[in-house]
## 1
Amino acid sequence: MKTKTQQLVLTAIITAMALASYTIEAAIPPLTPVYGIKLGIANIFTIFTLYALGTPQAAAVLLLRNVLGNILKGQILTHIYSLAGGLLSL
């Protein structure tokens, strides 16, 4: 059983890694001819968090990654679409 502090630190580290992969993936041009389709590498961190820590921490990683990533990219409107798809998958 992990303590609350360990869970918080692990969630923060995973969120940082997911945000880094999210911004790197946003810088890569799309590999498909359809605009807006990405590989979704940052979702691997959310799935890992869901498996390792549970649903509340996975939702926190998903929300923080999307909010901070869209702020960094300057695309606030895409935040709504990414949250809708991500929260439906949990």
Note: The mean pLDDT is 82.
## 2
Amino acid sequence: MELAKTERFAVVTGAGSGLGRCFALELAGRGLNTILVDLNRGSAAKVAEEARRLGTESISIEADLTDRESVGRVCDIICGNYRIFALVNNAGAGGSARFTECPDGYIERIISLNVTAVALLTHRLLPSLMKTDRAFILNVSSMAAFTPIGYKTVYPASKRFIYDFTRGLREELRNTGISLSVIHPGPMKTNPDVTGRIERQGRFGRIGLLSPEDVARKGIEGMFRGEAVIIPGLMNKFNKMLTDIVPARIRLPLVSRIVARELQ
């Protein structure tokens, strides 16, 4: 379904489930139209239907964002058919594994989704976003961005990229109508795999635990307020303060030992 370019849309990636679904419905609940991008067309279509029931327009697009050609196709569809005013780069991948044992595909998927896709989507969609007087980009990082972690290794590094990328581009675009924000969620029970890993961490895994609905609400509110860095939840803010204070030589082995429980 193609709509007139007079309609304005917010783009959400990874919108078929978990936090992405919550971002989509949070936007729809505010009366905002959405373009939902997900690897699973059926899941994205269901969320689009939920959004339409809230009285908004919503379009679903199937795309594998680990594939550059697919990223380009999505951007061509969006730029050629819709006016957009917001981009929520939510799609991402994570996990826990011994680096010596994980397959190449595990590493490639994390970097492709968390680093390459975010940079390329932002680069390709910026010209369209700049056509409106005021536009917004929200990039989803993680509390893991604030410290290296053994047995996750690539994931925290990829989320640190999101933080640095967002802050740098925000400064570069400070005199334009584009506002960039980065959100750092803590643990969320978004699917059975993630829930299992959180539970295996014990009490530590539940520190800062928030529902994806709460994170999405705080993220969208912060994005529209133009906040540079969004850390949802008082416990996560406290954890960030501890991260700044506790030396890495103490922090890194402690956190890594706890995360190692996920491998059981």
Note: Confidence is low (pLDDT under 50) at residues 1-6.
